[in-house]
């Protein structure tokens, strides 16, 4: 089983760490908090298929009804809850899952169909708008929920109706003359079907996923035309009609359906869709033993385009609000007043999913570096210390219209339960292992934390335990146990930002290949306890010069830092007029957990006057002097905190990551 959603159960968290503390919060607060929201908003009961008053609401984003994703919100919550229940029981959560599964079973139509909106609200419109209406996206999340449920409860109560629904989908979609040659506007079902295939071994599940992936973007898919054109015409859509998130009619790059994936040169469109789709592509590659050269090259090409040219310093992706997605190369404004920035929490989770799948195809630290960057910044910023507030958009600088503030929930609530389920199976991201033969084992350690991996081999359980205060300290102690009869190799990731590192006891041949250090069997036999030391020093980082942003930001280890008004109370302009000298000394302070829920390392930059500069000399018609007098001056030292921990202490919501570089 290669999926992190399966192998996470080999990982436990016996001693405290950033990760275990976040998991504790989700278990203690978030699951029940989100369950309550599901109930109070109508989502919980929606599978009863009764009318809900909100079904009359005008869509916030036409033509997408606000409640269209309710199936997925419930499914993601069940999925996350099942992961946590494998760790600790909870009667209230168990009872809710039981009731939800009963409702889902009862909501299934006689032919297998299973969807709230297209049963309770528009039953005559099934599969009539794959482009915009998330029917198959919801189906994908139901599949993933059912897989987690079946793994936890060892019964088919949830999986059974889902398999019946998938049968209906397999009959409906495919290359046959009587089938629809369509595919989802929002990918998700592809990766879910591939995971389902891993469990069932049913070739129909593989075939449907493959069909959705390969058919996507076919210009002549249906009646010699693009499927979405034919579908739109059948709905009576006018030629110039378009959803508001598409800049022009037929902007099918929004759904990554402008051409077949293997031909796509740059990563385009809605960022969550792109990540879910590419994750499925990577899964398909692995299932096909990485033999599909064209698909492999396309996925690698799109990954590189994204990471090199379309990713924020935080690992966030998606610069354009209109389509919640990618802009042109190097277009990475940090906030609304600069022209955008979206960096949705789900998109960060999607990057992690893709990175993890790429690592399984190609053990290269460049994927793990990005996976870690996303986790500790773009994703972990998505949930408050309390586990009861969330972000959807994660800008790198606030403005008066978009303050750095979390919310209790969203109308379109994809992100909060996505963080929940990610933390449920996060153990599956720390490491991968290969033990095809009974007497050999390879463990690849991608992320550091305090955790234990247990791998049953023969009649023994081989264990690898790591203990560290990562990401705050760079010393990781390892214990490798019970492996005496197994020829074992461990590969440790050395992050690309690590200037210096040491392994103790020393390793005669320090073989660092593509970001991983190999600890060979002979060495491990004599050194089952070893330590990796990696000093975590603060450093300045900058976006690529082609972004035209002459800014510097602070990083330490995998963490990106930001300024908040809570620590820098003089700020009135979201730190826009601030300039920072990259030569400034940086101090570190250990701060106890307080409101952050996490003991952390704060950074202080000692500034030299003047540090405020309105920088408007180039605009002659602006009355500069008054502004300058007000803005210029010494503000004293600048206090930075990890971006992931922002908005936990009140304040005005002024925040910035990248500060203008002082010349
Ligand atoms: O459309 C479903 C989810 O809601 C997407 O992944 C998010 O970007 C948001 O649009
Ligand atoms: Zn989301």
TrEMBL record:
Which organism's genome codes for this protein?
Phialocephala subalpina
Any Pfam family matching the protein: Beta-AFase-like_GH127_cat
User: Which protein is depicted?
Assistant: Probable DUF1680 domain protein
Q: Which SUPFAM superfamilies does this entry report, sorted A to Z? A: Six-hairpin glycosidases (SSF48208)
- Pinpoint the Non-reducing end beta-L-arabinofuranosidase-like GH127 C-terminal domain residues: 539-657
| Every Non-reducing end beta-L-arabinofuranosidase-like GH127 middle domain range | 442-525
Can you give the residue ranges of the Non-reducing end beta-L-arabinofuranosidase-like GH127 catalytic domain? Answer: 17-424
- GO BP: carbohydrate metabolic process
């Amino acid at each position: 089983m290669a999926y992190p959603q399966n192998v996470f159960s080999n990982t436990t968290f016996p001693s405290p760490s950033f990760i275990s503390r976040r998991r504790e919060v989700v278990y203690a607060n978030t699951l029940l908090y989100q369950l309550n929201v599901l109930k109070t908003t109508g989502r919980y009961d929606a599978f009863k298929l009764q009318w809900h008053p909100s079904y009359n609401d005008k869509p916030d984003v036409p033509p997408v009804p606000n409640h269209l994703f309710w199936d997925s919100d419930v499914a993601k919550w069940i999925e996350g809850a099942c992961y946590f229940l494998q760790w600790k029981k909870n009667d209230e959560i168990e009872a809710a899952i039981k009731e939800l599964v009963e409702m889902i079973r009862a909501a299934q139509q006689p032919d297998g169909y299973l969807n709230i909106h297209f049963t309770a609200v528009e039953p005559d419109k099934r599969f009539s708008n794959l482009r915009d209406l998330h029917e198959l996206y919801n189906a994908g999340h139901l599949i993933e929920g059912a897989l987690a449920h079946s793994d936890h409860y060892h019964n088919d109560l949830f999986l059974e109706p889902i398999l019946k629904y998938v049968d209906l989908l397999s009959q409906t979609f495919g290359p046959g003359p009587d089938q629809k040659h369509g595919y989802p506007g929002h990918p998700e079902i592809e990766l879910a079907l591939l995971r389902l295939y891993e469990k069932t071994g049913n070739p129909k599940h593989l075939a449907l996923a493959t069909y959705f992936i390969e058919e996507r973007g076919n210009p002549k898919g249906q009646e010699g035309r693009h499927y979405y054109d034919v579908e739109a015409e059948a709905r009576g859509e006018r030629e110039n009609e378009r959803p508001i998130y598409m800049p022009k009619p037929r902007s099918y790059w929004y759904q990554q359906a402008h051409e077949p994936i293997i031909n796509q040169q740059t990563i385009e469109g809605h960022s969550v869709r792109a990540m879910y789709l590419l994750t499925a592509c990577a899964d398909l590659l692995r299932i096909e033993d990485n033999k599909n050269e064209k698909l492999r090259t396309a996925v690698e090409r799109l990954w590189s385009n994204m990471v090199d040219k379309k990713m924020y310093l935080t690992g966030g992706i998606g610069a354009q609000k209109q389509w919640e997605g990618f802009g042109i190369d190097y277009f990475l404004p940090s906030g609304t007043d600069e022209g955008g920035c979206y960096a949705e929490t789900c998109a960060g989770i999607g990057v992690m999913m893709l990175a993890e799948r790429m690592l399984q195809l190609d053990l290269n630290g460049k994927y793990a570096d990005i996976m870690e960057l996303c986790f500790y910044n773009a994703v972990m910023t998505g949930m408050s210390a309390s586990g009861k507030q969330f972000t959807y958009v994660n800008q790198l600088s606030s403005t008066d219209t978009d303050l750095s503030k979390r919310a209790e929930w969203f109308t379109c609530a994809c992100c909060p339960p996505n963080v929940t389920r990610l933390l449920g199976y996060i153990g599956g991201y720390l490491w991968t292992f290969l033990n095809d033969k009974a007497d050999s084992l390879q463990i690849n350690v991608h992320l550091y934390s305090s955790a234990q991996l247990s791998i049953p081999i023969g009649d023994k359980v081989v264990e690898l335990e790591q203990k560290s205060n990562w990401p705050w300290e760079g010393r990781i102690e390892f214990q490798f146990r019970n492996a005496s009869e197994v020829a074992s190799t461990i590969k440790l990731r050395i992050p690309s930002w690590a200037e210096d590192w040491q392994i103790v006891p020393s390793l005669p041949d320090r073989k660092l290949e593509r970001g991983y250090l190999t600890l060979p069997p002979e060495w491990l036999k004599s050194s089952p306890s070893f330590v990796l030391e990696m000093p975590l020093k603060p450093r300045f980082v900058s976006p690529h010069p082609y972004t035209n942003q002459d800014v510097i930001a602070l990083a330490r280890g995998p963490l990106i830092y930001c300024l908040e008004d809570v620590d820098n109370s003089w700020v009135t302009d979201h730190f826009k007029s601030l300039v920072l000298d990259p030569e400034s000394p940086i101090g570190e302070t250990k701060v106890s957990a307080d409101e952050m829920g996490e003991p952390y390392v704060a950074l202080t930059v000692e500034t030299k006057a003047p540090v405020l500069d309105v920088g408007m000399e180039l605009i002659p018609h602006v009355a500069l002097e008054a502004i300058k007098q007000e803005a210029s001056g010494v503000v004293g030292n600048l206090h930075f905190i990890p971006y992931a921990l922002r908005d936990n202490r009140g304040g005005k919501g002024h925040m910035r990551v990248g500060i203008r570089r002082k010349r």
